[in-house]
Specification:
With 750 residues, chain A is mostly helical. The first copy, chain A, has 27 helices and 18 strands. Chain A has three domains: 105-292, Clc chloride channel; 316-554, Clc chloride channel, CATH 1.10.3080.10; 565-747, CBS-domain (Roll). Chain A is 54% helix and 8% strand. In chain A, the strands form eight sheets. Chain A has a three-stranded mixed β-sheet with strand order 8-10-11. In chain A, strands 13-14-15 form a three-stranded mixed β-sheet. In chain A, strands 1-18 form a two-stranded parallel ribbon. The longest helix of chain A is centred in the first third of the chain and has 54 residues, at 63-116. Chains A and B meet through helix 1, helix 8, helix 9, helix 18 and helix 19 of A and helix 1, helix 8, helix 9, helix 18 and helix 19 of B. Chains A, B: Keywords: CBS domain, Chloride, Ion transport, Membrane, Repeat, Transmembrane, Transmembrane helix, Transport.
């Protein structure tokens, strides 16, 4: 039944290997092995180290003190929401301005040359403009901050899951991300500006909550209490939610996104704060955009994207048609992911130099412009210009006066507007052939674009593809049945198609449903949307995982899912744990600590502290982290110096917080030969009550404990309370359910 | 700082005391002490007992087997949603019919006597009709199933929290609940039919998921795998969500309600299933109601209550006015709770006999009718009958022809319709005096009504009170500023007032916001609604807890909140645990087991199993539950019989599942004197890897472990792994934050 592939033997296992280059966008050696988990990723620690210092501080704090802390948390969440809203506003206005200039220029040029002939000059102008925008964006990303590439959602998923992706929440990343997304959307790529908002919100949160910026070397000396992984993670959840909320005008969807991706332990107060941040974010964005659009106070169209309200109803029979959409959605979604998967492997192997990456991005931009142009040129799909026509850049091209080219509306627009047109334009706005060709072309472009070294999201392209074939289906249906009254509105088929396609690609059921419901403002469509998302997910899962999971797996991140694989009851802590474990004594020689920390072949991050005993593993009495030991060594907290330290101040939690989160490497700390002979008393600094499990504990039980409490290290003990092993994230992430039952991934040494 | 009141000494502490009469609606002895936690409440066990039997079963199961289980879970959730929707439909139609007959009869009578005089006869008719309905409902509740009284939300909160309230999820309870709520709403009480839907959904879930009904003595032999607390709880969450969803047409709100109240460990798959159940429930209700109303397929007005869409916008300046609503909302809400608190204590002391309870309910019904009548009679608030007037029972009374009495619309209607009128009737429909008097009268009636021995909810009355003063405020505002254009719509003030009032009374921020947003279908108002709910909660919390928490506390339920009180870092497991602990040996004498289980002064429910040792506490090697021991004794699984048992079949998990959840008391199991001398081997049946903590673990840490994993027993060990104590729910629930810091509740002996 449970088919366990053979274990690889490895020496010197450790939690991870210090801060290294991020791999999320290209393995260093250009090789890729999909059965490997990388050691480069550190884990975050969501379990407070309740050592004496911590307990003393907590006990000193009065009830009032805790109230103040709570208030500060609310203030921070408000700030996060406000700043995220502002950033969304900035992106929106910048994109609108830049795209506006571009389309005006190209439109004038096309109109000029339509009469004289020589439209190839227009094409060149368009392609050059696009490539230029994309080049600037790609250079920023490829040369200055590669982690800012893509939508950022996989990275934030990993962060919330407890994996530390280096540099992912830095200010510089935020700046490049925002700049990059403006360039790529203005550059006409098949991308959306919504995904990056989630990443931006998370960075804002990580920055604001720490009250300092290490990039800017500025410490405001506020919010020092929150300088640890537990608190920071909570704020990052709020930031991600605020990002979703700003992007889609979906505050509840934002909260659910954060919870679906991140929170392992649901906490009511935390959820309220996340919700608060989301609300503030939408509100801020709306408020400033309404001012920008000259209608201050008109708050009824929230979010960067608004799909408009669907007022038309559907009849129950249509539910079955809607339901059938899950199949194309799931299959096309899986196809998207499979192609993108192979493309990404190709990129990892051959396109890992920054200049190549920039060139690929420019190539895609030029090709996008060319394809768009060709399709506009060859289509003669003329539609009368209506009174209520809201297309800003309607092209007449070869159409008669008073008409416009409807293919041009689909391509000659930001993707957001195209989605909206597909949802809401009256029946007859598009002819079926136009839509068919558009679907195909855009699918190819979107697959190719995702994974480029530009900062961009995949939500909107997915929606656009789905809306196109959904609407096509609706039109065909009304042609076949020719009962115009009932099937009058192909827009609702576009909506369901968009949901099916998005579900097939990204597979986040619950939050997506809510996001789509909130973005369309129609609770009525909630049921078919949910049904189609869920079944599209099932169909897609049959072939391949969701796009984000594909990318996470491609980077060999030790990602923990919600539950242990169902057939893993065969395994116990004994088989899963790494052993032997490097332990320290309660009072340990400095030399040994330095040696252990410097040992690059093991590079452990957590060490059980044991009571000295002879010839056998010692009884556990605590757990200490590498980062804590580093701070202790840096401040030379040695027993021998205790007397002289009387004049000095005692080491405080503040010293640990100041070093957080970039603890210096052991190599940078100088320990003299004399000092090596000193002793260090760990009693005060270790966590005296780490969680432990007996060796017989089944894997699902270990997994549940680990996941529910967000642990980084779990000590395995025998029935005498002696340390026999240590379970870390990688030991659990190794097991996953393959086609033939339980499979085990290898642990890479690099 | 942390001010701990002195501990009471008590002997014989145990987890609880077997199944007893439920106390949620009246203490037995008529006395009430608010500093006591009762022993009558058993805990639920959300931690699987991973004994050998369980592991063997799990290991036997193939990947396909787990898939089937998962499919079954989805099917069950679909069924739960469907049945809950049907029940909601039944309630809605029954109430509408009955109320329709009643109002028609009274209306005709009033119209008859308006001309001749002698309206007192109409009053008597009205009062008698009301009292008759309420009497029938109250008799059903008081004599047949007292647990069906009230909204049921506190009980479901407790269940999801892990407290077993006897008889709360039985079929009989459901029947009485549904019958009771129809009677009380038709009887014109100031109640809503929404709260009971949540309870109904939970009962449906508990029944369907177990594949049998113990009330009907019918076992369908399906879903046997789900016969344990962990699985059952998950389904009950889904049922509660489906109930909310049906009541308010708010599927997302339902999911959030379940999560806010129940789930400690967020699980993605579970959440999707809950959402699925919610969606099915709303859809079913809509579908059948649309058929009933003769418009099959018109699904646009979901839920039992629909507040109608708010299309009018608000200007940012109004946000500040909306925001100011939190103060009256919080204060009035707290006042409501305080009065109801004292009233409930009065009821516990003096009105604890069923016939008294029925009489009180009838009295309230008669008084409600009288007050309503008086207010209709004395008001001369005539409004012209508009074209689009939707009032079904508009009373002309003393108004001119073509006019109707607007006070009558507020009282002569089900509360749901009244709320809708307050939200949406055009400006000028009500005069300020009418609204003021109405607010006051309805407030008094609602306070008096909640806690009666009838099945009824408090959501709608709260909304109605809030909507009334909110609209009043809006009207006054427009009078003062006399700028009709901007303040034209008092309906939006009614909405925000309703939110503030509801927030002040029940205090569930997140799910309430979403419920209100979904029920009104306006995302735009989400921000002010959230703001007002949150601040109303803060204001209200200053005075007293939320209504449901007040009632939970009044029944001395050991309810665990989300986190340990912040100032509890002073306490460690050593102070919190109960000790000494009754332990069993791995192979134990039957006589001792029977004696321990029969000891009514301790009545423990979980027993650590230890390895035999001399003179000192033994090393822990497992944990066994009372229920498991009972099954073992019943099947006489003794070592001495092992040889003869070769012919018998081996004890299987099925035997434990068949006995679940009503394990027989120890008294019903006959053990002969010979058998008392036999030995029982617990190895196969005990949980070999119970969670343990060292004695130094701080209370917040113990609390987090306990809450995150949904434990019932947590073993405290010393550093030799010897059992020194046991932490149960009551040990943690004892500590709470009072006015003067940390307080400790006493544990009652009964």
């Amino acid at each position: 039944m449970a088919n366990i592939s053979k274990k690889v033997s490895w020496s010197g296992r450790g939690d991870d290997r210090g801060e290294r280059t991020p791999l999320l966008n290209g393995a260093e050696d250009g090789k890729y092995n999909r059965h490997v988990l990388h050691f480069v990723f550190q884990s975050l620690d969501y379990d407070n180290s309740e050592n004496q210092l911590f307990l003393e501080e907590e006990r000193r704090m009065s009830h009032m003190g805790f109230r103040c802390l709570e208030t500060r948390r609310w203030v921070i969440c408000g700030l996060i929401g406000f700043l995220t809203g502002l950033i969304a506003c900035l992106i929106d206005i910048a994109v609108e301005k830049l795209a506006g200039y571009k389309y005006s220029a190209v439109k004038q040029n096309i109109e000029k040359f339509t009469e004289f002939g020589g439209l190839s000059i227009s094409l060149i102008l368009w392609a050059v403009l696009n490539s230029a925008f994309v080049m600037v964006g790609a250079i920023a990303v490829a040369f200055f901050e590669p982690i800012a590439a893509g939508s950022g959602i996989p990275q934030i998923k990993c962060y919330l899951n407890g994996v530390k992706i280096p540099r992912v929440v830095r200010l510089k990343t935020l700046a490049i991300k925002v700049f990059g997304v403006i360039c790529s959307v203005a550059g006409g790529l098949a991308v959306g500006k919504e995904g990056p908002m989630i990443h931006s919100g998370a960075v804002v949160a990580a920055g604001v909550s720490q009250g300092r910026s290490t990039s800017l070397k500025k410490d405001f000396k506020i919010f020092e209490y929150f300088r640890r992984d537990t608190e920071k993670r909570d704020f990052v959840s709020a930031g991600a939610a605020a990002g979703v909320s700003a992007a889609f005008g979906a505050p509840v969807g934002g909260v659910l996104f954060s919870l679906e991706e991140g929170a392992s332990f649901w906490n009511q107060m935390l959820t309220w704060r996340i919700f608060f941040a989301s609300m503030i974010s939408t509100f801020t964005l709306n408020f400033f955009l309404s001012i920008y659009h000259g209608k201050p106070g008109e708050l009824s169209s929230p979010g960067l994207i608004n799909f408009g309200r669907f007022d038309s109803d559907y009849i129950p029979f249509e539910s079955f048609i809607f339901f059938s959409f899950h199949f194309p959605g799931g299959v096309l979604g899986a196809l998207f992911n499979v192609i993108n998967y192979w493309l990404t492997i190709f990129r990892i192997r051959y396109i890992h130099r920054p200049c190549l990456q920039v060139m690929e991005a420019m190539l895609v931009a030029a090709v996008t412009a060319t394809i768009s142009f060709a399709m506009i040129y060859f289509s003669n799909d003329c539609q009368p210009l209506g009174q209520d026509n809201t297309e800003e850049y309607s092209l007449q091209l070869f159409c008669a006066d008073g008409e416009y080219n409807s293919m041009a509306t689909a391509f000659f627009n930001t993707p957001e507007r195209s989605v909206r047109s597909l949802f809401h334009n009256p029946p007859g706005s598009y002819n079926p052939l136009t839509l068919g060709v558009f679907t195909l072309a855009y699918f190819v472009l979107a697959v190719w674009t995702y994974g480029l070294t530009v900062s961009a999201g995949v939500f909107i392209p997915s929606l656009l593809i789905g809306a196109a074939w959904g609407r096509l289906f609706g039109i065909l249906l009304s042609t076949i049945t020719s009962s115009q009254s009932i099937w009058a509105d192909p827009g609702k088929y576009a909506l369901i198609g968009a949901a099916a396609q998005l579900g097939g690609i990204v597979r986040m059921t619950l939050s997506l449903t809510v996001i789509l419901v909130e973005a369309t403002g129609s609770v009525t469509y909630g049921f078919p949307i949910m049904l189609v998302l869920m079944t599209a997910k099932i169909v897609g899962d049959y072939f391949i995982e969701g796009l984000y999971d594909v990318h996470i797996k491609l980077q060999s991140v030790p990602f923990l899912h919600w539950e242990a694989p169902p057939t893993s009851h065969w395994l116990t802590a004994r088989e899963v744990m790494s052993s032997p474990v490097t332990c320290f004594n309660r009072v340990e020689k400095v030399g040994r600590i330095v040696d252990v920390l410097s040992n690059t072949s093991t590079n452990h991050n957590g060490f059980p502290v044991v009571i000295l005993s002879f010839l056998q593993p010692g009884k556990i009495c605590g757990l200490i982290l590498r980062s804590q030991l580093i701070v202790l060594l840096k401040h030379k907290v040695f027993v021998e110096r205790a007397s002289s330290r009387l004049s000095h101040r005692k080491l405080q939690l503040k010293d640990f917080r100041d070093a957080y989160p970039r603890f210096p490497p052991i190599q940078s700390i100088h320990v003299s030969q004399d000092e090596r002979e000193c002793m260090m008393d760990l009693t005060e600094f270790m966590n005296p009550t780490p969680y432990t499990v007996p060796q017989e504990t089944s894997l699902p039980r270990v997994f549940k404990l680990f996941r529910a409490l967000g642990l980084r290290h779990l000590v395995v003990v025998d029935n005498e309370n002696r340390v026999v092993g240590l379970v870390t994230r990688k030991d659990l992430a190794r097991y996953h359910l393959g086609k033939d039952g339980l499979e085990e991934l290898h642990l890479a040494q690099t």
